[in-house]
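Batch queue: ligand-bound targets. Current item pairs a single chain with zinc ion. No template structures supplied; prediction is de novo from sequence plus SMILES. Inputs echoed for audit trail.
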Amino acid sequence: MATPAEEVTERDLAVVAEQLGREPRGVVSVAARCVCGRPTVVRTAPRLPDGTPFPTTFYLTCPPAVAAVSTLEAGGAMREMTARLAEDPELAAAHRAAHEDYLRRRAELGEVAEIEGISAGGMPDRVKCLHVLVGHALAVGPGINPIGDEALERIRETWRPDRCTC
Ligand SMILES: [Zn+2]
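Prediction returned. Tokens below.
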């Protein structure tokens, strides 16, 4: 039986449409919610209804969270984090393990040949989109996606999951 966090209702889909400014496609569940109950991350099918392969299984939808992450990205965090992956074998291994976790969770929703072995956000070797990594971190909880966890820590003053800013 699905937990309440994993259910998706018509109301949720309406909120996500409002958050994204468009109709959400391929949403299978809500992967994380704000303390107010609104979705912050949706879990999306690896193939959209129109047939398009969609690698980004965990999609950050909450506008204040998206904005906070964009500000972090604009400050050059991705370049700095990618450089650290090259210097820190432990971090690099954890980032690669996060990639494997991402692929494993996506495979639960079905295999899509076009994106086999390809995750998202720059994993396993780079950091290309912190929204993706934060979405994964929020969906699965701390300790799985180290870069996503760090990004959440760094935006904490602006946005955090236990305080509603919807
Ligand atoms: Zn909220």
